[in-house]
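Person: Show me a sequence?

Helper:
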Amino acid sequence: MNSPALGLLLDVDGPIASPVTRTVAIDSIAHDLVALANAGNPVIFNTGRSDAFIRDVVLDAMLGAGLEPGAPVHAICEKGATWFSIVDGVAGATQVDPELQVPADLGGFVRQLVEERFADTMFWDDTKLTMISVEQRVEVPSETYHRVQAEFNAIVAERMREQGLDSRLRLDPSIISTDVEDARVGKDMGARRAIELLQTFGVPKVWRTAGDSRSDYAMADWLHEAGYEVEHLDVRPADGVPETPYAVRMHDSLIHDDAAAVFLAEWRGEFTSPR
């Protein structure tokens, strides 16, 4: 079995979907992802997003950009707790790890909290299958959201302590959301699941990873430690760039999906020779 030339392991919010509009740019991002996948390079999303978001937003954009039925596309969602593959141009059944589900009673508390006190700035993500996610409303300015998010996080963290869940679960805020998740999930778990999914198709030796936060480096760390050649793209280096044993790239002036579009175009030129 010949290994693909390149594997892409990509966070979604930031590098692929705009954190402002929560959409994917079809003329740049989607077309380059599709060209890479159609050339036989596995494109794997490693995200905290739900399977529904990948199907409805990311996959929809890729299908609109000409994704071929045999192109290798996979999604590791909820930071490794759920996953699915694209088979013949259609999203397959979502697999769920039941051991990673957050207790339902905590979910009920958080949902009620959002609806009663924070509904004007954030909303409950009802598409998640294992974790709790509360997200910034698109029309709310980031400064307003971040101020209120701190109050919300403190209430949820205290509830977790009261229930004795603070050692089992983790509260993980981002620039547009707060997740409550099993402490075992993460981008390193997503990387491991990605390699498992590719075992029957061929695993690339060369990888490009991309993310917008320090936690996204965990997928590149895992791949490097497993013996793969990896280069990481940081599209929001203001979050902090750690020292790494592998190359880290970033744009001089662009961030988020604007920065990722530049590098995806570069990778498309380098890794889309005919199969």
